[in-house]
Each structure stands twice: as structure tokens, then as C-alpha cells.
Design goal:
The protein is an alpha+beta fold. It is built from seven helices and 20 strands. 35% of the residues lie in helices and 18% in strands. The longest helix is centred in the N-terminal third of the chain and has 67 residues.
Length: 476
């Protein structure tokens, strides 16, 4: 076995070639350069050592900026201690060591971030809560306001009802007991009345006549307005109403129409037929046309009622609506009284004034068969008579009729005056709600067959409503 060789740590001597002066100069220059390089490297290392912390700090500030949350002056640092807001939370990346959650440093960082998020969530929650509270308060205030408004509206309605009840309760009716006939001046002309019943001194009904009670201009204006109104409302067929099914059957019989009818043909709660059946009857039923206006709705209404008062003594407070009625050729109105016979209610038509608006070639007379009086239509001519006596009893001798127009077209203006005035008299009433109808759809009323006729109306009162008729009949 070879014997180990002991090493002295020195290697074998090496042979070197003799060095020349040039080599020595070159070597010295190299050594000088080396020393300069070493010195220069030393300074660079020192500068690097001094600069690196600053570089890392800037990098850290850039990567992990400090929290500037003004809502809290403290943040949580990596060690979990509380520090100044200018301190930086450094988030360390810890390798996954099998933990199900973040590491300690990460937990600390997340804790700080979590706290900020929690504060943010809390702030949002508080804001949401405040918003919800505000909304709730607003809703409650709105409800209180609505409740107050509703209460106010109810109070106002109740107050208005009390006032209306008081007005109606305190209303003092006026009474008409007789006609007070005088001559009257119309547009500078003195008009002297003529009594048409002077040869019947014992008659409880008196009929008087005035010539040119209305001027030509007034007559023409009234006819024009009436015709235009009828034309405007005639684009839709009217609904036709009867006072009963017997009247309907008699009108069908007169027209030679074999049509079976029953109460089912009337709309619920009314005496009116439906639109389709009404349109079917329009082809053979005939009627006159009536349009209405009320006191104060035109300057003429005031002029006319004052003229009537001066001529007849009929008080305007006892007057009802004004009606313009037209009768086409072949149309009249059957014998009837304007008041209701054996009526216990004194709020009934005491007197009637009627004015013809144009001449009629033939027919159209206003006839009083019990009095032997017949008045021919003539432009501006007025006829006035009483229907009741001084006690408010309806006089049967006041019965009259409008003879059918044979040739021409008849137009009249008329107004009724009541024995006992009442609160709603002369006021335009609200329109009845039933039956359902189209806007502007007119009504045709066919009254009691023996004493009435069919007439077209531009307004819907309550005469066609079954309940109203029942209550009204209980007053008679």
C-alpha cells in the first residue's frame, strides 16, 4: 500500500522568465489600475449599500401605500399593534403551509383591511339604515298627511253638507196664487194683453195673449241656437225611454210592428231600451225636440224672465228652466195638463208661458178643448195661462194639446212657474248616471200613451230611473 504523501501546503516552485524593464512598467501600470478599480468598486459598494434601503423603501411605498382613511386615525400593522395613520401595513406573502386560512402576517394585514371593510360596511349599513329610517319617516309622514288630507276632505265634505242642509232647511219658499196681467213695453213698444177666456167668466183657468212679445231678432237667435244644438247631438242615435212596457207595446202597435218585447229589453234600473233596440225603433218612431237652458246662463234668460214678471206678475224665483221645442211636420203633442191631477205636492206647475218663434203655414195650434180656445202659431206671439188655482190645486180645465204640424215647422220657447218654489228650482241638475251611454247621447222620452207623446231631450234628468219614479209617485 503506498505511503501517504504529506503535503506542506506549498506547491512546486515555478520557473519564471527574466522580466524586462518594459514588463515591469506594464505590471506597475496594471497594478495601479487594479488598485483604482478596487477603490472604485469599494465606493460603488458603499453607495449601493447606502442606496438600497432607500430604493426598497420607495418600492414598498409604491407597492403598499399607507392608508389615508380619515375616518380612523389608527391602523393595524403586521404585528397587530395600533399605530399612526401614516404607518404602512406591509402584506407579506406566506407560502401555504397546509393552513386552511391565511398566515399570521397575512391575517394581520387582512385584519386591518377587514376592519376597514367592516367600517365601510358598517358605514353603508348605517347609511342604509338612516336612509330606510328617513324613508320610513317620510312614509309615515306621508300617511299622516294623507290621513290628515282625507280627514280634512271628509271634514270639508261634512261641513259643506251641514251648510247645504242649513241652506235647504232655512230656505223659505215663495208662492204663486194668481196671474197679475199688465201691459208691457218691449224695445220701445207697448204691448197690451188680450184675455182669450173673457167669455167664460167662471172659468178657473185664464188664458192671455201678447203680440210681438219677442222681437224678430230674438226669435231668430233662439231658433238658430236650438237647431245647432240638436244637430250636434244627432250624430249618435238617442236612447229611447218609455214610462212603461204598455206604452212601448202601443207605440209598436201604432207602427204596425210585430215585435215581442219584455222587461228584459230595458236596461237595469231604468225604463230605457238599449242602444241597438233604440236604433231599431228610430226608423219608425217620431218625436219633437227639446233643448234647455237655465237662469243666468245667458243674458237673454235675465231679460226674458224680467219681461215675463212685468207682464204677468210671475216671480222669477218660482220659475224653472227655459225650453226651446221644435215640431217637425206631422208631429204634435197629445192632450195633457202641465200640472199633476190630484197631486198633494204643491211644488207643481202653477202657470205656463209659451212664445212662438216663427209662423206655421198650417197646423201646430195650441188648443184648450175645455175652454174652447185655440191659438195659432205666429212669430213673437206669447200665450200665458194658469194650470192651478190659488190653493195649489191642479185644474182639469187647463188641459191642452199641441196640434200636429200639417205644413211647416213649429218652434216655441216655454217656461213653467211653480206654485211653491223649492231650493233646486231653476238650477241645472246633475246628469243621471244610468243608463250607460256615449258622450253627448240624447234621450227620447215617450210619456203616458193616452196623454203624452215622444220627445227628444238634450239632458238626462231622473224621470227614466225606476227608483226615482217610485219615490215620486209616493208623493202624489
Amino acid at each position: 500500500m503506498p505511503k501517504p504523501v504529506k503535503r506542506s501546503g506549498k506547491g512546486p516552485k515555478r520557473e519564471h522568465a527574466p522580466r524586462t524593464e518594459k514588463d515591469r512598467a506594464s505590471s506597475g501600470s496594471a497594478r495601479a489600475k487594479g488598485r483604482g478599480a478596487v477603490a472604485e468598486n469599494r465606493y460603488l459598494r458603499i453607495a449601493a449599500v447606502m442606496f438600497l434601503p432607500i430604493l426598497f423603501g420607495v418600492f414598498g411605498l409604491f407597492m403598499f401605500p399607507p392608508s389615508l382613511n380619515s375616518g380612523d386615525s389608527n391602523v393595524t400593522n403586521a404585528s397587530g399593534s395600533r399605530g399612526n395613520n401614516s404607518r404602512t401595513v406591509v402584506e407579506q406573502v406566506v407560502p401555504n403551509s397546509g393552513q386552511s386560512g391565511p398566515g399570521p402576517a397575512e391575517s394581520a394585514s387582512i385584519g386591518g383591511e377587514g376592519e376597514r371593510k367592516a367600517r365601510s360596511v358598517k358605514s353603508k349599513s348605517d347609511s342604509a339604515g338612516q336612509s330606510q329610517n328617513k324613508q320610513t319617516n317620510k312614509s309615515q309622514k306621508q300617511k299622516r298627511k294623507e290621513k290628515g288630507s282625507s280627514k280634512t276632505a271628509d271634514d270639508q265634505a261634512s261641513l259643506q253638507k251641514e251648510k247645504l242642509d242649513k241652506v235647504t232647511t232655512d230656505f223659505q219658499p215663495s208662492y204663486l196664487e194668481h196671474l197679475d196681467i199688465h201691459e208691457v213695453v218691449v224695445e220701445g213698444r207697448t204691448i197690451v194683453p188680450t184675455e182669450l177666456t173673457k167669455d167664460k167668466p167662471n172659468s178657473p183657468v185664464k188664458v192671455y195673449q201678447y203680440e210681438r212679445f219677442l222681437s224678430d231678432r230674438e226669435c231668430a237667435g233662439l231658433m238658430k241656437v236650438h237647431q245647432q244644438h240638436v244637430s250636434d247631438l244627432s250624430t249618435v242615435d238617442p236612447l229611447i225611454c218609455f214610462d212603461g212596457i204598455d206604452t212601448l207595446r202601443k207605440h209598436l202597435q201604432d207602427a204596425n210592428r210585430d215585435i215581442s218585447v219584455s222587461l228584459k229589453d230595458f236596461t237595469e234600473g231604468t225604463t230605457c231600451l238599449n242602444s241597438s233596440f233604440s236604433s231599431q225603433l228610430k226608423s219608425f218612431l217620431t218625436w219633437s225636440y227639446s233643448t234647455a237652458f237655465y237662469p243666468g246662463e245667458s243674458k237673454f234668460s235675465t231679460i226674458f224672465e224680467e219681461r215675463v214678471f212685468q207682464a204677468t206678475g210671475l216671480n222669477p224665483t218660482n220659475g224653472g228652466k227655459f225650453q226651446i221645442t221644435s215640431y217637425p211636420q206631422g208631429i204634435g203633442y197629445k192632450t195633457h195638463t202641465d200640472c199633476i191631477l190630484d197631486n198633494a205636492d204643491k211644488r207643481d206647475r202653477f202657470a205656463t208661458i209659451l212664445v212662438y218663434l216663427q209662423d206655421v203655414q198650417e197646423g201646430g195650434e195650441t188648443q184648450f178643448p175645455e175652454l174652447g180656445v185655440s191659438v195659432k202659431p205666429k212669430k213673437g206671439r206669447a200665450v200665458v195661462w194658469n194650470n192651478m188655482d190659488a190653493t195649489g190645486y191642479c185644474e182639469p180645465q187647463s188641459v191642452h194639446k199641441a196640434a200636429a204640424v200639417i205644413s211647416g215647422h213649429k218652434f216655441i220657447l216655454q217656461r213653467w212657474y211653480y206654485h211653491e218654489s223649492f231650493f233646486q228650482l231653476g238650477k241645472r241638475p246633475p246628469q243621471a248616471d244610468i243608463p250607460a251611454r256615449e258622450p253627448g247621447q240624447a234621450k227620447v222620452n215617450c210619456d203616458e200613451y193616452e196623454h203624452g207623446s215622444c220627445r227628444w231631450y238634450d239632458e238626462w234628468n231622473y224621470d227614466h230611473i225606476v227608483d226615482y219614479q217610485l219615490k215620486k209617485s209616493s208623493l202624489h
